[in-house]
Amino acid sequence: MLTVIARFIVNLIYKVNGTVSAYAKKNPGDDIVFAGAAKGVIYEISSDVERSVKWVTARRAVLLLTKQAIIHGNLRISLKDVKQAEIILFNSFLTKGMVLRINTTDEKQHQFGITFDESLLNQKSLELTVSNEKVKHSPLSILARILLVVIIVREIYLRFIVWTN
After folding, report:
1. Which residue range is the domain that position 36 belongs to?
2. Are residues 150 and 90 in the same domain?
3. What is the DSSP letter of 79?
4. d(CA 83, CA 80)
5. What average pLDDT does this structure show over 9-30?
6. What is residue 20's predicted lDDT score, i.e. its pLDDT?
7. What distance in Å separates the CA atoms of residue 159 and residue 148, rounded to the nearest whole number?
């Protein structure tokens, strides 16, 4: 249930419905199969999915899957150029998520982080393999998480333990 609420809120923030309407008006013959808010990163070589700095600075845009292409902002990947497409499912802190990993004929790998959405798994335009691969943490991601916990514990200590004495 939290995943559905999170997807709804994120899609509102990214203005997914407006992007879908604008695309459909400009491209009446190209049917939209899936639309959702996504963060996208590009790698020059195949790469494991991991939480890293690259995701912090990732391009944020509406991801459209049509019967002809994958579109993310000004990036357009023809489905003819897709060598392999995979969905990696993972659990986040409170919600479920997925990464669409696309390997293309130009030897690049595109990864799109999306809130879990069954409709992408059920579409028929892009042949997908689905895996429950573990999302790795980069050393910087681990350090940032430890730092966040230390800051939270420090604030709790200062506000509730030191101030009450």
Report:
1. 2-134
2. no
3. G
4. 8
5. 94
6. 97
7. 16
